[in-house]
């Protein structure tokens, strides 16, 4: 799944590659996916977009926004898949779920691999903040240590679920998923199972710093190595705690990294460093 660093990278690249281009149309490919949700028929979206220019792209947490003129915006939300740019002389993929064509012959394609939604919003629908109902991205000005501590206290499952559950809940923080949560917890030296009431003030600050450090490093690296950018290149961020590092020595203490079942999925951690 695309998390904040990947969304930031893709939005920055779309802003650079697509701004000023004129939409020619929008189409669905022959592929269909039951977990891809569109808010309009393709024909309606195509008619709305045709002739409008791309005025920029942005991201917020794990969502991306491609602006069409001054009155419409394409919202890519919670997506797991490949979003690729195809220059005018480039070759389109044989199979895709969605495609946006531009008047200069270039295209943008999307292949869904997990789930996600794509909405075409009119300005009255989104105003200035289409993301106002979701959590705060970790590197935003709003994400202060004080606000972070408030979010921890407001987490409704703080006594029943571990701190990892908090990290991946987008209603509190928008942009972190399972992939980065594990590295964050390793850098903070916290077990995924630790309950929030048991985390003392110094550990909370350490967790806050670990969130910022991990997300910043991943953005600087262009996202994770198992995700692709707009030009189909892998990111440069290699995770410390993952299925690829399970069974290898911890980079801090040398203890074998373990796999742990938790919250319906798998966690990877150092049993010595993370308590």
Describe the structure.
- The chain is an alpha+beta fold.
- The chain has 2 domains: 4-126, N-terminal domain of MutM-like DNA repair proteins (Alpha-Beta Barrel); 145-269, Helicase, Ruva Protein, domain 3 (Orthogonal Bundle), CATH 1.10.8.
- Helices cover 27% and strands 23% of the residues.
- It has helices at 4-18, 42-49, 123-126, 145-154, 163-167, 178-188, 201-220; strands spanning 23-28, 36-38, 54-60, 63-68, 72-77, 81-86, 98-102, 107-112, 116-122, 258-262, 265-269.
- The strands form 3 sheets. Strands 2-9-5-4-3 form a 5-stranded mixed beta sheet. A 4-stranded antiparallel beta sheet has the order 1-7-8-6. A two-stranded antiparallel ribbon has the order 10-11.
- Strand 3 (54-60) and strand 4 (63-68) form a beta hairpin.
- The chain is elongated.
Element layout with pairings:
Elements: H1 4-18, E1 23-28, E2 36-38, H2 42-49, E3 54-60, E4 63-68, E5 72-77, E6 81-86, E7 98-102, E8 107-112, E9 116-122, H3 123-126, H4 145-154, H5 163-167, H6 178-188, H7 201-220, E10 258-262, E11 265-269
Parallel strand pairs: 2-9
Antiparallel strand pairs: 1-7, 3-4, 4-5, 5-9, 6-8, 7-8, 10-11
Helix pairs in contact: 1-7, 6-7
Outline of the structure:
This protein is of the alpha+beta class and 275 residues long. Helices cover 27% and strands 23% of the residues. It has two domains: 4-126, Alpha-Beta Barrel (N-terminal domain of MutM-like DNA repair proteins), CATH 3.20.190.10; 145-269, Helicase, Ruva Protein, domain 3 (Orthogonal Bundle), CATH 1.10.8.
